[in-house]
Amino acid sequence: NCVYCECGPTTDLTLSRREYVPAKRVREELADFLSGKPDLDFITFAGSGEPTLHSRIGDILSFLKDEFPQYRVCVLTNGSLFHLKSVRNALMRADKVIPSLDAASVSVWKKLNRPHPSLHLKALMGGLEKFAKEYKGDYAVEVFIMPAVNDRAEELAKLKKALMRIAPSSVQLNSLIRPGAEKSLRAAKAASLVRIARFFAPLKVELSGSAPSDKISPDFKKSINDKIMSAVSRRPLTLEDLAALTGMRVVELAKTAEGLVASGRIVFVKQGKKMFIKNAGAREG
Fold it and tell me: Are 158 and 116 in contact (CB under 8 A)?
């Protein structure tokens, strides 16, 4: 339930692992899409919900690696359940796993991540450390920097100490790109991220300076309206983001977006100097 989540505040703060969506349905949809042999960098598990809460995620990952081994699979996770061996085991067949660790002190962790009351930061960090020792794939820990919250010297020193113990393949340093769950948030400046990256040495640090341009295959047959709605239902996007997704020109997308605004399906939201498109039905903070 992180304050910076681009999907908005959670509607169900839970630690209950279950089959939220039937694994059979997930496998069928993946098989249908991948049978067209789309050109993908990764198949990524993320989006509206914590992937490791799904009790069958391990089975789904195994299905992908057995049936479509040509594709790399990545899991983005908050890492809150890594203290459970069953969760760590479930992710072993992923090619890349990226959990988050935004704070190493309880007060900052609670302010930024707003965790379930039953979670404990010490157990979370211990789980991340255990996973690093067990996992053989590409293991990156994401650190989301929030100005005046977790970028102070004392907190950064604690974070570095924790990251050194975890010893991931790399650290991904990130800040606000799209509108978060709380509208008052602001992004860290690039110079600040560079300074923090240097402070984290000798850890390998990657700066995430812009939104990823996910690919949608030409074989993925949908109307442009449906493509836009599907994309912005997952997270807010700029017209430039949508251009990368659809292969359309920004000017063409702008015209389509005007129609969707008029019909009440999307809204424009300003974040910094950029305008983002959101699903008008998305939950607000």
Answer: no
